[in-house]
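# step 3/5: fold
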Amino acid sequence: MHMHTGRMERQWSRTSIDGQLALSVIIFDLDNFGEVNKRFGHQAGDAVLKAFAGLLTRRFRESDLVARYGGEEFVAVLEGATAPEALRIAEDIRAAFEAKPTDVGADEPLAVTVSAGCAQLGSDRKVSAGLAMADVWLAQAKRAGRNQVVGL
């Protein structure tokens, strides 16, 4: 579930219909994930990562690419989705994850939240540029208090 941006850019340059098919990127970041590992241990952290990955797998289509993107970050590239559509999908996922605490083997399930940044790729279809923009929005979501989705 790891990602290679060069491979993705080749894939979508082939699948675009005259370059008109919208593509959007979402970066998800689990809030305060280091704290989960510190307080409950790495097995708890792994359980949270697996729970979130499972939610992403269920929520996205086969035509979308979903991958782990660093420690507690995940990225999704949505084929045929505009930025407003990506924002709506990311918000649905954020709300669903917040609503279902994860069983981490503690006394009670652990409520973990997620922040996300969304961006639509430009006409050059550069995934790296879309990721950079989504990362800027993600940082804004974190600064604004976490547990939210930001994008344009």
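# step 4/5: annotate
The radius of gyration is 15 Å.
# step 5/5: archive (pending)
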